[in-house]
Amino acid sequence: MALLLEHEFRPLPADKQIETLPFLEAVAHLPPFFDCLGTPIVYSPVKADLAGNIKKIRAVYDSNPTKFKTLQNILEVEKEMHGAAWPKTGATLALMWLKRGLKFMLVLLQSISDGERDDEHPNLIRVNAMKAYEIALKKYHGWMLQKLFMGSVYALPYKSDLLKALEKGKEVKEEESIEKIHQFLTRVTPILDAIYEMYTRMNAELSYKA
Hints:
Layout: H1 2-5, H2 20-27, H3 40-63, H4 71-82, H5 90-113, H6 126-136, H7 143-152, H8 159-166, H9 174-201
């Protein structure tokens, strides 16, 4: 799974304090995942949003690497810095949307890894993409974005083509690709869960629609 495993995420430490720089370096390799889904009108903006949010967080980190050593440091410092405007500002807002894009990606891959499928069309990934959208993004999208996404599922690639794209064009047995997806999910899911927990704990989650 060349695209997913070319830059590994560090294991989640016991205290769940995620270091900012290693996280950003690992996640920076993931936006091209959305190229593998086709439908540029829908997924190019998602890819650009993901990359843009990574860039915003990196700019904040680079301004003071000591102060912003962990993702929690970013939220804590920005809460103090921005007052009433927080959390709808700065790297806190960028990370909020970044985690949602990552959640979509992980739920989609987990669904494929778990073998969830349309029995009449087993090589399609509509069922997986719809599940990921419902869980990760739908409630944050207005009516127009929801309609755009619902239409896009009919243009998604076949599962076999998606797996090949994730292998960067190499022919690999499906079970080998699924095992690599499982390795990726095992490493990244606890990290994403910890970020979601941090937002809940710090009351930083927002529900406005894009």
